[in-house]
Amino acid sequence: MTAELTDRPRVVTTGKVVVWVVAALCLALVTWLAVGNLVGVSRSVADFNAFVHKNGGTGLETSTPWVALVIDVAIAPVAFVVAWVVSRRMDLVRTVVVFVAAFCAVSALWFTLLQYVGSTLRIGS
Fold it and tell me: Which of 30, 47, 66, 119 has the most Cβ atoms closer than 10 angstroms to its Cβ?
């Protein structure tokens, strides 16, 4: 490769800033919802386990799927950073494509983890 291709300067345009802000807001919403799931699921599991323990059904206690919940919280910020690093020297159209792909990947993984967490819990059944 020539030096011209490898030393391509990073150009920050208004369009790229708009893409970054919109992507940050969308992925922040996903992170906010994931934190809500982490708090809600852990609280529900703790309440259920306390109820079951109080009533003598210790065999029905269930564990909180911490790994899935923490991954759920971490995927959106990690995806934003990866998309930003990958697209920082690209033009506007490619930057949009990279962030749309990152958002699609986050959404797919997020919904998969939600289903996994829901399927691992035996609360009330």
Answer: 30
